[in-house]
Amino acid sequence: MKKIKVNEKWCLACHLCEYYCAFANSGKGDMVKALQNRKIFPRITVEENDKISLAVPCRHCDDAPCVKACISSALSVDSDGLVQINKDKCVSCFTCVLVCPYGALSPGEDGVMQKCELCQTNGQQEPACVAGCPNRAIEYKEAAE
Predict the structure, then answer these.
(1) CATH-assigned architecture of domain 60-115
(2) Of 20, 62, 97, 126, whose CB neighbour count within 10 A is largest?
């Protein structure tokens, strides 16, 4: 399975990955209309301090603690190993947020949990954060690489 890999040595903390992610998952065809003067809800976030900056996507863990902890069975793993959220089942209890060791889940604009699904659910060929990273700090490649 292909996964997102982040090279923190190349991350500029520009947050463009967050904007591309929010736009790709907005359902709108125009980035300005989708994001201008609005709070964005990306499924990837950039964490930074004085020494390092790093984009944090879902790792699609082999033994995903978020899936095990989900009280409503809203989280599941598909046949390809992709951890997905069924938004109709999510009760916004935040248990998944508490157990994720990477901090990769967050509430969306509607309060329902969201996470990176590698842009598989929005029709993109590759994750939007990868395509939008100006320094190529974010890659989409086979997990074994």
Answers:
(1) 2-Layer Sandwich (3.30)
(2) 20
CA nearest neighbour of 20 among 37, 39, 44: 44
List Cα–Cα distances, 140 to 37, 40, 55, 87, in angstroms: 30, 23, 13, 25
At 145 the pLDDT is 54
Per DSSP (E only), the strands in 103-145 are 106-107, 113-114, 138-142
What are the CA-CA distances from residue 8 to residues 31, 54, 97, 99, 130 (Å)? 26, 5, 23, 23, 14
* pTM, two decimal places: 0.90
24-46 pLDDT tens trace: 999 999 999 999 999 999 999 99
Asked if residue 38 lies in contact with residue 54, where contact means CB atoms within 8 angstroms, the answer is: no
Task: Provide the CATH topology of domain 1-57+122-145.
Answer: Alpha-Beta Plaits (3.30.70)
What's the pLDDT at 107? 95
Q: What is the spatial distance between Cα 92 and Cα 56, in angstroms, rounded to a whole number?
A: 21
Find out whether 98 and 105 touch, Cβ atoms under 8 Å: no
Q: What's the gap between Cα 31 and its chain centre?
A: 18
Contact 55, 68 (CB under 8 A): no
